[in-house]
Protein backbone atom coordinates (compact mmCIF):
# COMPACT_ATOMS: atom_id res chain seq x y z
CA UNK A 1 0.00 0.00 0.00
CA UNK A 2 2.84 2.41 0.86
CA UNK A 3 4.52 1.64 -2.46
CA UNK A 4 1.26 2.25 -4.35
CA UNK A 5 0.75 5.57 -2.56
CA UNK A 6 4.31 6.61 -3.43
CA UNK A 7 3.75 5.78 -7.11
CA UNK A 8 0.51 7.76 -7.18
CA UNK A 9 2.13 10.74 -5.49
CA UNK A 10 5.07 10.63 -7.91
CA UNK A 11 2.72 10.45 -10.89
CA UNK A 12 0.76 13.45 -9.62
CA UNK A 13 3.95 15.44 -9.17
CA UNK A 14 5.11 14.53 -12.69
CA UNK A 15 1.81 15.59 -14.25
CA UNK A 16 1.92 18.80 -12.24
CA UNK A 17 5.32 19.61 -13.71
CA UNK A 18 4.20 18.88 -17.28
CA UNK A 19 1.02 20.94 -17.14
CA UNK A 20 2.01 23.77 -14.82
CA UNK A 21 3.25 25.82 -17.75
CA UNK A 22 -0.14 25.57 -19.49
CA UNK A 23 -2.04 27.34 -16.71
CA UNK A 24 -2.25 31.07 -17.25
CA UNK A 25 -1.43 33.52 -14.49
CA UNK A 26 -4.33 35.56 -15.84
CA UNK A 27 -6.94 32.87 -15.08
CA UNK A 28 -8.54 35.07 -12.45
CA UNK A 29 -12.23 35.76 -11.90
CA UNK A 30 -12.94 38.97 -9.98
CA UNK A 31 -16.13 39.09 -7.93
CA UNK A 32 -17.38 42.67 -7.95
CA UNK A 33 -19.45 44.00 -5.08
CA UNK A 34 -22.94 45.03 -6.24
CA UNK A 35 -25.75 46.73 -4.36
CA UNK A 36 -28.53 44.68 -5.87
CA UNK A 37 -27.93 40.94 -6.31
CA UNK A 38 -28.78 39.32 -9.65
CA UNK A 39 -32.02 37.43 -10.15
CA UNK A 40 -30.91 33.91 -10.93
CA UNK A 41 -33.59 33.16 -13.50
CA UNK A 42 -32.71 36.32 -15.44
CA UNK A 43 -29.48 34.67 -16.53
CA UNK A 44 -26.83 36.84 -18.14
CA UNK A 45 -29.30 39.68 -18.82
CA UNK A 46 -29.53 40.83 -15.21
CA UNK A 47 -27.99 44.33 -14.77
CA UNK A 48 -25.80 43.09 -11.90
CA UNK A 49 -23.50 41.39 -14.43
CA UNK A 50 -22.98 44.46 -16.62
CA UNK A 51 -19.72 45.67 -15.05
CA UNK A 52 -18.32 42.27 -14.10
CA UNK A 53 -15.44 41.24 -16.37
CA UNK A 54 -15.80 37.84 -18.01
CA UNK A 55 -12.96 35.34 -17.97
CA UNK A 56 -13.03 33.27 -21.17
CA UNK A 57 -11.42 29.82 -21.09
CA UNK A 58 -11.18 26.65 -23.15
CA UNK A 59 -12.42 23.35 -21.75
CA UNK A 60 -10.88 20.24 -23.33
CA UNK A 61 -11.06 16.46 -23.37
CA UNK A 62 -14.81 15.92 -23.06
CA UNK A 63 -16.99 13.29 -24.71
CA UNK A 64 -19.63 14.43 -27.22
CA UNK A 65 -18.38 18.02 -27.52
CA UNK A 66 -17.06 18.77 -31.03
CA UNK A 67 -13.38 17.79 -30.98
CA UNK A 68 -13.82 17.33 -27.22
CA UNK A 69 -13.73 21.09 -26.66
CA UNK A 70 -16.02 23.94 -25.64
CA UNK A 71 -15.56 27.62 -24.89
CA UNK A 72 -16.73 28.92 -21.51
CA UNK A 73 -16.95 32.28 -19.78
CA UNK A 74 -17.19 33.06 -16.07
CA UNK A 75 -18.32 36.16 -14.18
CA UNK A 76 -18.77 36.72 -10.44
CA UNK A 77 -20.34 39.29 -8.14
CA UNK A 78 -21.13 39.40 -4.44
CA UNK A 79 -23.86 41.17 -2.50
CA UNK A 80 -24.63 41.04 1.20
CA UNK A 81 -23.62 37.64 2.50
CA UNK A 82 -23.78 35.80 -0.84
CA UNK A 83 -21.57 35.00 -3.83
CA UNK A 84 -23.04 34.80 -7.34
CA UNK A 85 -21.32 33.08 -10.29
CA UNK A 86 -22.40 33.18 -13.93
CA UNK A 87 -21.07 30.46 -16.24
CA UNK A 88 -21.87 30.18 -19.94
CA UNK A 89 -20.54 27.51 -22.27
CA UNK A 90 -21.19 26.24 -25.78
CA UNK A 91 -23.10 23.01 -26.25
CA UNK A 92 -24.77 22.36 -29.59
CA UNK A 93 -27.41 20.06 -28.12
CA UNK A 94 -29.54 20.04 -24.97
CA UNK A 95 -29.37 16.51 -23.56
CA UNK A 96 -32.36 15.43 -21.47
CA UNK A 97 -32.91 11.71 -22.16
CA UNK A 98 -31.26 10.47 -18.99
CA UNK A 99 -31.55 6.64 -19.11
CA UNK A 100 -35.32 6.66 -19.76
CA UNK A 101 -37.65 3.69 -19.79
CA UNK A 102 -38.98 2.84 -23.24
CA UNK A 103 -42.00 0.68 -24.01
CA UNK A 104 -41.10 -2.15 -26.36
CA UNK A 105 -43.19 -3.61 -29.19
CA UNK A 106 -44.06 -6.64 -27.02
CA UNK A 107 -45.42 -4.37 -24.27
CA UNK A 108 -42.44 -4.72 -21.92
CA UNK A 109 -40.42 -1.79 -20.58
CA UNK A 110 -36.68 -1.40 -21.01
CA UNK A 111 -34.23 1.15 -19.61
CA UNK A 112 -32.21 2.61 -22.49
CA UNK A 113 -28.46 2.34 -21.92
CA UNK A 114 -25.28 2.97 -23.86
CA UNK A 115 -24.14 -0.49 -25.07
CA UNK A 116 -20.52 0.62 -24.59
CA UNK A 117 -21.04 1.52 -20.92
CA UNK A 118 -18.94 -0.86 -18.83
CA UNK A 119 -20.26 0.67 -15.60
CA UNK A 120 -20.65 4.31 -14.56
CA UNK A 121 -19.62 5.55 -18.01
CA UNK A 122 -22.88 6.42 -19.80
CA UNK A 123 -22.33 8.65 -22.85
CA UNK A 124 -25.49 8.11 -24.90
CA UNK A 125 -28.53 8.45 -22.63
CA UNK A 126 -27.59 11.03 -20.04
CA UNK A 127 -27.80 14.72 -19.14
CA UNK A 128 -25.72 17.87 -19.49
CA UNK A 129 -23.87 18.93 -16.33
CA UNK A 130 -21.48 21.53 -14.97
CA UNK A 131 -19.09 21.11 -12.05
CA UNK A 132 -16.84 23.38 -10.01
CA UNK A 133 -14.33 21.98 -7.52
CA UNK A 134 -12.90 24.29 -4.85
CA UNK A 135 -9.70 23.71 -2.93
CA UNK A 136 -10.94 23.83 0.67
CA UNK A 137 -8.51 25.79 2.84
CA UNK A 138 -5.70 25.25 0.30
CA UNK A 139 -5.53 21.70 1.62
CA UNK A 140 -5.08 19.90 -1.72
CA UNK A 141 -1.49 19.54 -2.87
CA UNK A 142 -0.64 20.40 -6.50
CA UNK A 143 -3.96 22.21 -6.95
CA UNK A 144 -2.04 25.42 -7.59
CA UNK A 145 -0.38 23.75 -10.59
CA UNK A 146 -3.05 21.36 -11.89
CA UNK A 147 -6.36 22.61 -10.59
CA UNK A 148 -8.90 19.81 -10.26
CA UNK A 149 -6.76 17.52 -12.46
CA UNK A 150 -4.80 16.67 -9.34
CA UNK A 151 -7.76 14.56 -8.18
CA UNK A 152 -8.27 12.69 -11.48
CA UNK A 153 -6.90 9.13 -11.56
CA UNK A 154 -7.41 7.22 -14.81
CA UNK A 155 -6.53 3.67 -15.79
CA UNK A 156 -7.19 2.04 -12.43
CA UNK A 157 -8.46 -1.49 -12.01
CA UNK A 158 -12.19 -2.30 -12.01
CA UNK A 159 -13.27 1.07 -13.41
CA UNK A 160 -13.76 1.94 -17.09
CA UNK A 161 -12.92 5.60 -16.60
CA UNK A 162 -10.79 6.14 -13.54
CA UNK A 163 -11.62 7.66 -10.18
CA UNK A 164 -11.66 10.97 -8.36
CA UNK A 165 -9.93 11.42 -5.00
CA UNK A 166 -7.32 13.53 -3.28
CA UNK A 167 -3.92 12.05 -2.47
CA UNK A 168 -3.76 12.34 1.32
CA UNK A 169 -5.94 12.50 4.42
CA UNK A 170 -6.98 16.06 5.20
CA UNK A 171 -7.01 17.14 1.55
CA UNK A 172 -10.57 18.21 0.75
CA UNK A 173 -12.38 19.63 -2.25
CA UNK A 174 -15.83 21.24 -2.39
CA UNK A 175 -17.76 20.01 -5.45
CA UNK A 176 -20.60 22.10 -6.88
CA UNK A 177 -22.30 19.69 -9.28
CA UNK A 178 -25.08 21.17 -11.43
CA UNK A 179 -27.18 18.49 -13.11
CA UNK A 180 -29.62 19.62 -15.78
CA UNK A 181 -32.16 16.83 -15.19
CA UNK A 182 -31.73 15.92 -11.52
CA UNK A 183 -31.11 19.30 -9.81
CA UNK A 184 -31.66 22.05 -12.38
CA UNK A 185 -35.47 21.82 -12.39
CA UNK A 186 -35.61 22.35 -8.60
CA UNK A 187 -33.19 25.30 -8.74
CA UNK A 188 -30.25 23.78 -6.91
CA UNK A 189 -26.69 22.57 -7.27
CA UNK A 190 -25.83 19.18 -5.80
CA UNK A 191 -23.37 20.11 -3.04
CA UNK A 192 -20.73 17.39 -2.75
CA UNK A 193 -17.17 17.01 -1.54
CA UNK A 194 -13.96 15.14 -2.32
CA UNK A 195 -11.60 13.32 0.03
CA UNK A 196 -8.82 10.73 -0.26
CA UNK A 197 -10.98 7.57 -0.24
CA UNK A 198 -9.76 5.00 -2.79
CA UNK A 199 -12.11 3.03 -5.02
CA UNK A 200 -13.63 -0.14 -3.61
CA UNK A 201 -16.31 -1.88 -5.68
CA UNK A 202 -18.42 -2.72 -2.63
CA UNK A 203 -17.52 -0.17 0.06
CA UNK A 204 -16.58 2.94 -1.95
CA UNK A 205 -17.77 2.72 -5.59
CA UNK A 206 -17.58 6.51 -5.85
CA UNK A 207 -14.02 6.59 -4.45
CA UNK A 208 -13.40 10.08 -2.99
CA UNK A 209 -16.49 11.77 -4.42
CA UNK A 210 -19.21 12.00 -1.78
CA UNK A 211 -22.33 14.00 -1.00
CA UNK A 212 -22.78 16.58 1.74
CA UNK A 213 -25.28 15.50 4.42
CA UNK A 214 -28.97 16.08 3.73
CA UNK A 215 -32.05 15.97 5.94
CA UNK A 216 -34.60 15.41 3.17
CA UNK A 217 -35.23 15.64 -0.56
CA UNK A 218 -32.96 14.82 -3.46
CA UNK A 219 -33.39 12.41 -6.35
CA UNK A 220 -33.88 8.66 -6.61
CA UNK A 221 -34.25 6.11 -9.38
CA UNK A 222 -37.63 4.78 -10.43
CA UNK A 223 -37.58 0.97 -10.35
CA UNK A 224 -39.55 -1.57 -12.32
CA UNK A 225 -42.40 -3.24 -10.46
CA UNK A 226 -43.95 -6.25 -12.18
CA UNK A 227 -42.08 -5.19 -15.29
CA UNK A 228 -43.43 -1.63 -15.32
CA UNK A 229 -42.05 1.68 -13.93
CA UNK A 230 -43.21 2.47 -10.39
CA UNK A 231 -44.46 5.96 -11.18
CA UNK A 232 -45.52 8.29 -13.94
CA UNK A 233 -45.91 12.05 -14.14
CA UNK A 234 -49.49 13.14 -13.57
CA UNK A 235 -48.96 15.94 -16.10
CA UNK A 236 -48.39 13.37 -18.85
CA UNK A 237 -51.88 11.86 -18.59
CA UNK A 238 -53.63 14.41 -20.78
CA UNK A 239 -50.96 15.02 -23.41
CA UNK A 240 -49.41 11.53 -23.43
CA UNK A 241 -46.52 12.94 -25.47
CA UNK A 242 -43.56 10.74 -26.24
CA UNK A 243 -40.73 11.72 -23.95
CA UNK A 244 -42.08 14.75 -22.15
CA UNK A 245 -39.81 15.67 -19.27
CA UNK A 246 -37.25 13.04 -18.30
CA UNK A 247 -37.76 13.62 -14.58
CA UNK A 248 -40.76 13.55 -12.28
CA UNK A 249 -41.17 16.05 -9.45
CA UNK A 250 -41.90 14.27 -6.19
CA UNK A 251 -45.17 16.21 -5.94
CA UNK A 252 -46.25 15.13 -9.43
CA UNK A 253 -45.67 11.37 -9.24
CA UNK A 254 -48.64 8.99 -9.40
CA UNK A 255 -49.03 5.25 -9.82
CA UNK A 256 -48.14 4.03 -13.28
CA UNK A 257 -50.92 3.45 -15.83
CA UNK A 258 -49.49 1.26 -18.58
CA UNK A 259 -52.54 1.80 -20.76
CA UNK A 260 -51.54 5.42 -21.34
CA UNK A 261 -48.46 4.46 -23.35
CA UNK A 262 -47.77 2.82 -26.69
CA UNK A 263 -44.76 1.14 -28.24
CA UNK A 264 -41.78 3.48 -28.43
CA UNK A 265 -43.04 5.86 -25.74
CA UNK A 266 -40.46 6.93 -23.16
CA UNK A 267 -40.91 7.90 -19.51
CA UNK A 268 -38.63 9.24 -16.80
CA UNK A 269 -36.50 6.96 -14.64
CA UNK A 270 -35.85 9.56 -11.90
CA UNK A 271 -37.91 11.30 -9.22
CA UNK A 272 -36.56 14.65 -7.98
CA UNK A 273 -37.14 17.00 -5.05
CA UNK A 274 -35.16 19.88 -3.50
CA UNK A 275 -32.41 18.92 -1.08
CA UNK A 276 -32.83 20.04 2.52
CA UNK A 277 -29.77 20.50 4.72
CA UNK A 278 -26.09 20.90 3.90
CA UNK A 279 -26.42 19.28 0.48
CA UNK A 280 -28.99 21.85 -0.62
CA UNK A 281 -27.33 25.14 0.33
CA UNK A 282 -26.46 26.24 -3.24
CA UNK A 283 -29.18 27.86 -5.35
CA UNK A 284 -29.01 27.89 -9.13
CA UNK A 285 -30.79 28.46 -12.42
CA UNK A 286 -29.79 26.57 -15.58
CA UNK A 287 -31.04 27.37 -19.07
CA UNK A 288 -30.11 26.18 -22.58
CA UNK A 289 -30.80 28.31 -25.64
CA UNK A 290 -29.33 28.47 -29.14
CA UNK A 291 -26.39 26.20 -28.41
CA UNK A 292 -25.42 27.82 -25.12
CA UNK A 293 -25.87 26.83 -21.49
CA UNK A 294 -26.28 29.67 -19.01
CA UNK A 295 -25.88 28.75 -15.35
CA UNK A 296 -26.22 31.17 -12.43
CA UNK A 297 -25.12 29.91 -9.02
CA UNK A 298 -25.59 31.51 -5.60
CA UNK A 299 -24.30 30.49 -2.18
CA UNK A 300 -23.67 32.09 1.18
CA UNK A 301 -20.11 33.28 1.56
CA UNK A 302 -19.81 31.40 4.84
CA UNK A 303 -21.82 28.23 5.52
CA UNK A 304 -19.91 26.81 8.47
CA UNK A 305 -19.88 23.32 6.95
CA UNK A 306 -16.59 21.42 7.03
CA UNK A 307 -17.46 20.11 3.55
CA UNK A 308 -17.67 23.61 2.03
CA UNK A 309 -15.16 26.20 0.94
CA UNK A 310 -15.59 29.26 3.18
CA UNK A 311 -15.33 32.70 1.58
CA UNK A 312 -14.70 34.33 4.93
CA UNK A 313 -11.61 36.44 4.33
CA UNK A 314 -12.32 38.35 1.12
CA UNK A 315 -8.66 39.34 0.84
CA UNK A 316 -7.75 35.72 0.05
CA UNK A 317 -7.57 34.07 -3.36
CA UNK A 318 -9.73 30.96 -3.79
CA UNK A 319 -8.65 28.23 -6.23
CA UNK A 320 -11.15 26.17 -8.21
CA UNK A 321 -11.54 24.04 -11.31
CA UNK A 322 -14.31 23.96 -13.92
CA UNK A 323 -15.67 21.07 -16.01
CA UNK A 324 -18.59 20.68 -18.40
CA UNK A 325 -20.34 17.44 -19.38
CA UNK A 326 -22.12 16.99 -22.72
CA UNK A 327 -24.53 14.08 -22.32
CA UNK A 328 -21.81 12.27 -20.37
CA UNK A 329 -21.75 10.68 -16.95
CA UNK A 330 -18.04 11.20 -16.25
CA UNK A 331 -16.16 12.11 -19.46
CA UNK A 332 -16.06 15.87 -18.96
CA UNK A 333 -14.26 18.68 -20.73
CA UNK A 334 -12.11 20.61 -18.29
CA UNK A 335 -9.80 23.56 -17.85
CA UNK A 336 -6.12 22.72 -17.43
CA UNK A 337 -4.66 24.36 -14.35
CA UNK A 338 -6.34 26.26 -11.52
CA UNK A 339 -8.81 29.08 -11.83
CA UNK A 340 -8.73 31.74 -9.13
CA UNK A 341 -11.51 33.76 -7.55
CA UNK A 342 -10.68 37.13 -6.02
CA UNK A 343 -13.06 39.60 -4.40
CA UNK A 344 -13.27 43.33 -4.90
CA UNK A 345 -14.82 44.88 -1.83
Task: Report on the architecture of this protein.
The protein has 345 residues and is mostly beta strands. It has a single domain (2-98, 120-211, 283-344), classed as Immunoglobulin-like (Sandwich), CATH 2.60.40. It is 8% helix and 35% strand. The protein is built from three helices and 25 strands. The longest helix is centred in the N-terminal third of the chain and has 18 residues, at 2-19. The radius of gyration is 21 Å and the shape is globular. The model is unreliable at 1-23 (pLDDT under 50).
Low-confidence stretches are: 1-23
Helix fraction, binned, reads under 10%
Q: Could you name the CATH topology?
A: Immunoglobulin-like
Order of helices and strands: HEEEEEEEHEEEEEEEEEHEEEEEEEEE
The percentage of residues in β strands lies in: 35-45%
Distance between the termini: 47 Å
As for the number of domains, it is 1
Provide a compact summary of the structure.
This protein is mainly beta. The protein has a single domain (2-98, 120-211, 283-344), classed as Immunoglobulin-like. The protein contains three helices and 25 strands.
Brief descriptors of the model:
single chain; 345 residues; mainly beta; Immunoglobulin-like; 25 strands; 8% helix
Amino acid sequence: MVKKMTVLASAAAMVATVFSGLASAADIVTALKVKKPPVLTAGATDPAWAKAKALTILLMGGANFKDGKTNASIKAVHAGDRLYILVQYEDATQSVRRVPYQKQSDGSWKKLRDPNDKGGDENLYYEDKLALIWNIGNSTKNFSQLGCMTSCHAGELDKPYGNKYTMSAGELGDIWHMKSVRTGPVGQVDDQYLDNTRFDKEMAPGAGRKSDPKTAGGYRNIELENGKPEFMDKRAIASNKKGGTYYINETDKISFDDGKFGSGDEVASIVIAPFAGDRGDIDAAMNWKNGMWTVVISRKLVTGSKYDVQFENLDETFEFGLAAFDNAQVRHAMHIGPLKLQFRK
